[in-house]
Amino acid sequence: MWGQFIFTERMKLNASRSINRENYFWRTYDGQGFDLIELDSSQNLQALECKLGNGKAKIPVAFEKAYPNANWNKVDNSNFLDWVL
Fold this sequence. Notes:
Blueprint: H1 2-16, E1 22-27, E2 33-39, E3 45-50, H2 61-66, E4 71-75, H3 80-84
Parallel strand pairs: 3-4
Antiparallel strand pairs: 1-2, 2-3
């Protein structure tokens, strides 16, 4: 639910600011993944892993190998307002 909330709020924020980004999620068969991938018009990837609480997050090895130039961030209850306002 937390990941879906962040996903929805990011889409609303980008729409209200007329920012055109494609939105995806990314998962492997063994459960590695990101809750939100944003692709901008310059083909830059921004990956967000949403954690409710202070759970650890790290970049999945398969993602880092496939997209070595992508940026990623953990979004949690301490910093989510920075990502949705």
